[in-house]
Amino acid sequence: MYLPAAYADSSGTARLPVLYMPDGGMAEDFLHVAGLVQVLTGNGTMRPFILVGIENTQRRRDLTGPTTNPEELKIAPRVGGSAAYRTFIRTELMPLIRQRYRTTAEMGIVGESLAGLFVVETLVLEPALFDTYVAFDPSVWWNQGQLVGQAEKMLRTYKGSAKTLYIGSSRDNEKIPQSRRLASLLRGAPKSSIIWYYQPLPEETHATIYHPAALQAFRTVFKPKTRSTSK
């Protein structure tokens, strides 16, 4: 858990939006993402967010949907638990955070690789859960890329409240056919309630993308809101 200075400096009155992150353990991605939030909110290029890291217990189980691919079934004793993981976030974690901390209704989620797959899957299957979805090198190749086909239908038909999707893609990810197909779908999607950004980062690999991509993403989707002035 990271609470920005704006939370402590408000004399107990400020309410802040919440950014959830799978792969959010202290030995995972939490520390460098918390550092980014601290720096960006400090220099005024990102709105303050409460950051909630979710430490993994069985990563490949929790962050993946079902698969029929025999090779993917070999990577872990159990896979395909993303629906149960989403239920945990919605019914247990979110109410706990709302109870213990001063939050607004705005929520985002950020993740990379399998956590990025979970981010995109959540947008496609349960878009109401978050307002902003940020994914870096999402593993959309999972289950022969079935999620990409589901995303195509969702992008054509979605009529719900406004959502934001940001995808950052390394040069490794750009080589994967399902990733290229998702990028093409986004570029050709009709204007709807989903605001999307697709950012190739050819100088980055799958191993290096998270930090530089998050820097750009947070400045883009969480930038401070401008105030209109009247003369």
Automatic annotation (TrEMBL):
Keyword Hydrolase appears in the UniProt entry: yes
Any single Pfam family the record assigns to this protein: Esterase
Gene3D superfamilies, A to Z: alpha/beta hydrolase
Alphabetic keyword roster: Hydrolase
Alphabetized GO MF terms: hydrolase activity, acting on ester bonds
UniProt similarity note: Belongs to the esterase D family.
Protein name: Putative esterase
Organism from which the protein derives: Hymenobacter roseosalivarius DSM 11622
